[in-house]
Amino acid sequence: MIRNCLRLISEPTNILINGPSSGFIQNRSFSLTTMNLGRGFKQGRGTGDSGQSSLYNNERRWKDDDSFNALGATDELSSFLGVCGASAQNDGEMNDVVETLTRLQCCLQDVGAHLATPPKNSSERKQKKTAFDVSMVEWINAEIDRYGDELPGIRQFILSGGGVTSANLQYARAVCRRAERCVVPLIREENVDPMALKFLNRMSDLLFVLGRTACMRNKNEELTYLRPDSFTNMKWDRKSLHDKKK
């Protein structure tokens, strides 16, 4: 289950770093110092120099193929979640948010594994190994409720901002939307599990809620959209989201 996805402690791990992951990571942590990374990079480098690369089923495709567009977008999203997590870690009082973001990165690894295994050209063994875990959708819905219940309601569009962490999380939400759009062609053409698309859609909702959470906990201002009838007389309510909650 997702509750056991990670133990954020420093102890050795035997996670395989080559090849897609399958299912939730059970009782693992990440200590790169214990891994044998060879000469600082994996073997077989340069195989994509010609503009093609391999999916998990060993099928070679051009790097601008829909599959790699989707994989690249989810990879970018996961990388930026790392930026958000580092920012939240510096804020203090945000350990639960950091853990949620780390778990989202683990989930994205599994999403990528699933996208890299198109069912039409993949063995039954590999399809089973990278099947999408629907419990991830159940978990993310519960996280949306958990954080959303702490926030005041909104009646206007929220502007990205409210501090560095909040702004980063709102930017991650936009990256997530792009990743979702990149997966749509695979849903239509490759017969990948539609629940993977649903997961990304719900992730964007969670990132929106987490952005507001960061704004509130850091006692920053949450600006909302105002009609720009006059650029010289625009005024915002300067109460922080933390004060509005009271």
From TrEMBL:
Gene3D superfamilies: Cobalamin adenosyltransferase-like
Pfam families attached to this UniProt entry: Cob_adeno_trans (PF01923)
Catalytic activity, as annotated: cob(I)alamin-[corrinoid adenosyltransferase] + ATP = apo-[corrinoid adenosyltransferase] + adenosylcob(III)alamin + triphosphate
Keywords carried by this UniProt record: ATP-binding, Nucleotide-binding, Transferase
Keyword Transmembrane helix: no
Segments forming domain Cobalamin adenosyltransferase-like: 47-213
Role played: Converts cob(I)alamin to adenosylcobalamin (adenosylcob(III)alamin), a coenzyme for methylmalonyl-CoA mutase, therefore participates in the final step of the vitamin B12 conversion. Generates adenosylcobalamin (AdoCbl) and directly delivers the cofactor to MUT in a transfer that is stimulated by ATP-binding to MMAB and gated by MMAA.
Subunit structure: Homotrimer.
Record protein name field: Corrinoid adenosyltransferase MMAB
Family per similarity comment: Belongs to the Cob(I)alamin adenosyltransferase family.
A biological-process GO annotation: cobalamin metabolic process
Transmembrane intervals: none
GO molecular function: ATP binding; corrinoid adenosyltransferase activity
